[in-house]
Design a protein that fits this description.
The two termini are 28 Å apart. With 87 residues, the chain is of the alpha+beta class.
């Protein structure tokens, strides 16, 4: 899966955003900042499938563990991701 990634630095991503969006329909894109991966751009259909899968895993986990779980690890992961995006 990692061999299908295409990398852009921030400057190149800005300069060729339309091209990047077109390429993201067929392969995952990683945008780097100072050489470090920062964000990824993926096809929306793939994103929706991933989110659906996570919901299914959460449901299975909840059924297995029960409702007395103090903190749902999937919710925590998604909240952490959203917190990182707001910064």
């Amino acid at each position: 899966m990692l061999n299908k990634l295409k990398f852009y630095n921030v400057a190149d991503a800005k300069a060729s955003l339309s091209k990047l969006i077109s390429e993201a329909k067929n392969q995952d894109i990683v945008i780097t900042k100072n050489g470090v991966p920062e964000v990824s751009v993926i096809n929306y259909e793939r994103y929706a499938k991933i989110m659906d899968f996570l919901e299914q895993v959460k449901d299975i986990y909840t059924l297995d563990v029960g409702t007395g779980v103090p903190e749902d690890p999937v919710d925590k992961m998604l909240e952490d991701d959203q917190d990182d995006q707001e910064v």
